[in-house]
Design brief:
By secondary structure, the chain is an alpha+beta fold. Helices cover 40% and strands 27% of the residues. It has 4 helices and 8 strands.
Amino acid sequence: MRGPSCVTVPYLLVRHELRLLASLWLWAARRTEGATAGGSVFGYSRGQGAMMFGFGFVCVIETVMMSVLLRDWPTAHHVVLVLDVYTVVFVVGLHAASVVRPHVLDPGGGTLRIRRAVHLDVRIPLERIASVRRELRTTHERVDGELDLAVGSQTSVTVRLAEPVTHVTFLGRRREVRVVRCHADDPGGLVRAVERAREGHAVP
């Protein structure tokens, strides 16, 4: 399979950065992207909150230390400061993207959207779901036809499909997957909601 072109990669990277910045605005405005009328959203960011906070704190400490070390070299100081500040914004943006882009169950549209920040968005038609169950996994091996979206190194929901769906990677490569594993802050609630939607019931 051919890889992305040299033109496509810069475009994808710029789009990624713009989506992160947009996520910061949505987070500050307490808005959710992709929610539908009559649908339900299921967050997954709680499991990574402490880790992201710790990473952001380390980045802030590094920024302060580098500012002190490079105070006698103004040019280097300014360049490193810009890079360090952007790193902090990037980390916060990643967490914000996870908060404002939750999994979305849309019974009216007949789809389940499994997402992870701005990196991935898989739309699964409800009629293709063979089974959905709560399953905690902390180790994941790469297997053809399976997609593992771990948060905090774990997944808690497994969706098995009767027919494959197409997963498009960050760089535009296409994969057919029959098993999707993801994490949800309320895995039991997500499983029950999907089962009810598959049976044609409204999701509370």
